[in-house]
Design brief:
heterodimer; A: mainly alpha; MetI-like fold; B: MetI-like fold; 11 helices; about 85% helix; about 0% strand
């Protein structure tokens, strides 16, 4: 089924059993954690840094009282809300621009001027208009997720094999049928890659907005823990944010492999 | 010739959009507290650069972005080359890097504040940490994916490890590295702005947030326009460099 990822040729002495591989993968983090533990304990109690064991305890505690899960819910709601709006808009615009050459050329300069605006620069603009809360975060995540979908969908749609378009013309398909029956299946693998990219961006931007201004979610949690001089809780939040990001990415990579097999991987942009 | 015409048509669209923006404000469909007219935003931009300290903020942001990017690039490329050229290092370090990569870089800001306080060093640390990933991973990938036959050539020519890295691996990884540099610069700009917002460092991030807090929408839009301009210039400069440095490759294939 070709589900394994392509990897460069292995060298000779490498162990190939799965447990061996896992042990090698864990060696570095475990060593670092032990070093950090010793270092933090030697340094004595501190307001800025905590040993990993204390962070683990804080993580269990924050999971137990539900505060961490509540923050995770807020962050993911905003991230996915913004992803849905931004990716949806980007998809529609990308299909339009990818299939209508004239429109694409007319809008090119506008897009070139708007796209480089860093998403975080929009935070104050949205803050003035929307105030604090979910709407602020969703608006900024949508802005950030719009671009990868727009650009990559446009490229995927305009890159559809011309002979397929000729087939559509010969069959006298309506524009709608042409999109649904020919263009979408041909460009879907690449569009999914764009979606995966945007999903990663959505979480990053959501946490960033929370850290910068918005008083909800995981970003706000890590920020307040730091300000309250609770380094153990701060590191627990940080580890949890990493875990959420890793999990989201892993789910999407898995989905991509299941849905599209090799097709998506070959055309993945770097 | 037609390309020029299309460019002009594109410019006309931009002009039409700005006219539409102006009209929306003139008709008072949106409160001027949220949306200044384009004329007011432009005046605020010119006035800010000439008489206020918008120029200082602009150079502050560029400085943070470039300094952090340079740190991240140097470290990222060096580490990426080391890890990428050794299969052993890849098996041990690779999984840890894969775990760290999706971590939103801004989430380390509180940790950086705890260590460095509200200082420019904090911003450099955060930008360095956040922008290193594209460079590190693309360099690793580039060095690991060197055509095996080129490795045999290096072996036959009895090149030392250092020579092989410099003469064979580096040029062959150049496209990956340049792509990483470009992405890293975008990340650097974003993180510079976030750090300025949080730590109140001299820069456009601080400027736009203060403008928003005091409802000076014209100043706010002036800052956003400058940030867009930085992004545009940085990206075009690196695209240009990429085109030049990789010219040998285009010729080849």
């Amino acid at each position: 089924m070709g589900r394994r990822r392509f990897s460069p040729p292995r060298s000779y002495g490498e162990g190939n059993g799965a447990p061996m591989k896992a042990a090698k993968a864990l060696a570095l983090p475990v060593a670092l954690l032990i070093l950090a533990e010793i270092g933090a304990r030697l340094g004595g109690p501190s307001d800025s840094i905590a040993p990993p064991s204390a962070a683990a305890l804080a993580l269990v505690e924050a999971l137990g009282d539900g505060s961490l899960l509540e923050a995770t819910r807020d962050t993911l709601l905003s991230a996915f809300g913004g992803l849905a709006i931004g990716a949806g808009l980007g998809l529609v615009l990308g299909i339009l621009l990818g299939s209508l050459r004239t429109l694409d050329r007319l809008m090119e300069l506008t897009i070139e001027l708007l796209r480089p605006i860093p998403s975080v620069a929009v935070i104050p603009v949205a803050l003035v208009a929307l105030g604090f809360g979910y709407r602020l975060e969703i608006a900024i995540v949508s802005f950030a997720c719009l671009w990868p979908l727009l650009i990559l969908t446009r490229a995927a749609v305009s890159g559809v094999e011309p002979r397929l378009i000729e087939v559509a013309r010969a069959l006298r398909l309506s524009p709608w049928a042409r999109i649904v029956k020919i263009v979408a299946p041909a460009s879907l693998p690449r569009i999914f890659v764009a979606f995966r990219l945007a999903a990663g961006i959505s979480l990053i931007v959501a946490v960033t907005v929370e850290i910068a201004v918005n008083p909800i979610g995981l970003g706000y949690g890590v920020m307040t823990a730091g300000q309250a001089l609770r380094p153990a809780l701060m590191l627990a939040y940080l580890f949890w944010i990493g875990l959420v990001g890793y999990g989201l990415n892993a789910v999407l990579v898995l989905a991509q492999g299941r849905l599209f097999g090799r097709a998506a991987r070959l055309e993945a942009p770097r | 010739m037609t390309a020029l015409l299309w460019r002009l048509a594109g410019l006309a669209v931009v002009a039409a959009l700005i006219a539409g923006w102006s009209e929306i404000v003139a008709q008072k469909w949106v409160s001027p507290v949220f949306l200044p007219s384009p004329e007011r935003a432009w005046t605020a931009l010119v006035h800010g650069l000439a008489h206020s300290d918008l120029g200082v903020k602009l150079s502050g942001t560029i400085e943070h972005m470039l300094a952090g990017w340079l740190i991240a690039s140097t470290l990222g490329i060096a580490l990426g080359a080391l890890i990428g050229s050794s299969a052993l290092a890849r098996t041990y370090v690779g999984p840890t890097l894969e775990f760290l990569r999706p971590l939103p870089a801004s989430a380390v800001i509180p940790v950086a504040i705890a260590i460095f306080g509200f200082t420019p060093a904090m911003a450099l640390g955060v930008i360095g940490f956040g922008a290193i990933w594209p460079m590190l991973l693309s360099t690793m990938h580039g060095f690991a994916a060197v055509e095996p036959r080129l490795g045999e050539v290096a072996h036959a020519l009895r090149l030392s490890r250092w020579q092989a890295a410099w003469k064979i691996s580096l040029p062959s990884a150049a496209p990956d590295i340049l792509a990483g540099l470009r992405l890293g610069l975008t990340v650097s700009l974003i993180l510079a702005v976030v750090c300025e917002m949080i730590a109140g460092l001299d820069g456009l991030g601080q400027w736009v947030l203060l403008a928003a807090r005091s409802y000076k929408s014209a100043d706010l839009f002036a800052g956003v326009m400058l940030l867009g301009a930085i992004g545009l210039v940085a990206n075009s400069a690196l695209s240009l460099a990429e085109g030049r440095l990789l010219r040998w490759r285009a010729r080849e294939g």
